[in-house]
Automatic annotation (TrEMBL):
It comes from Rudanella paleaurantiibacter. SMART domains: FAS1 (SM00554). This is Fasciclin domain-containing protein. One of its GO terms (cellular component) is extracellular space. Signal peptide: none annotated. Transmembrane segments: none annotated. The lineage of its organism: Bacteria, Pseudomonadati, Bacteroidota, Cytophagia, Cytophagales. Residues 48-179 form the FAS1 domain.
Length: 184
């Protein structure tokens, strides 16, 4: 007797995770599909901002925010985390060779853009004071990045960490250079 109830409960939970919902009108027999927004659509002006909202609130990170949106990573980065995001500034993107950002933002380069952005994210909380010289950090794209500390200054690969902002789901370390993943 409990098995059908448990099956119904599990099925309901799994269906609740979908981003699309299909219903059939019993009067007309027509199906309609509605898209349901993800975690990023939750409106909350009272709580601490998540890593995406921290970046979105910064005038120095408009290129990063546009890239995260284009790559379809907003909902993933709005989840509970914890995340450590190494967030390049607009100036860091501007320092890339001419046309690089525009090329990466094209729909046909979405996968490449996502790979680069995921190389800027760790699924763990790394406060600055816990980072150590020579420490390897596994990034979401599967690559490793290396921390260096010299004279109290922190770097990830060859990018300087120039600031830190705490978020509700992690930490945003502001960096002065776009770090590129190693070739796979």
């Amino acid at each position: 007797m409990k098995t059908p109830f448990i099956t119904l409960l599990i099925t309901s939970a799994l269906l609740g995770c979908n981003t699309e919902s299909t219903t059939q009108n019993t009067d007309t027999g027509q199906e309609t599909t509605a898209t349901v927004a993800g975690q990023s659509a939750v409106q909350d002006d009272d709580s601490q901002k998540d890593v995406v909202k921290v970046a979105a609130g910064s005038p120095d990170h408009t290129t990063l925010v546009k890239a995260v949106q284009t790559a379809g990573l907003v909902d993933a980065l709005s989840n509970a985390g914890p995340f450590t995001v190494f967030a390049p500034t607009n100036a860091a993107f501007d320092a890339l060779p001419a046309g690089t950002v525009d090329d990466l933002l094209k729909p046909e380069n979405k996968e490449k853009l996502a790979d680069i952005l995921q190389y800027h994210v760790s699924v763990a909380g790394y406060p600055l004071e816990n980072l150590q010289d020579g420490q390897k950090i596994n990034q979401v794209n599967g690559g490793d990045a290396t921390i260096s500390v010299k004279d109290g200054k922190y770097k990830i690969n060859d990018a300087n960490i120039v600031g830190t902002v705490k978020a509700s789901n992690g930490i945003v370390h502001i960096i002065d250079k776009v770090i590129l993943p190693p070739a796979k």
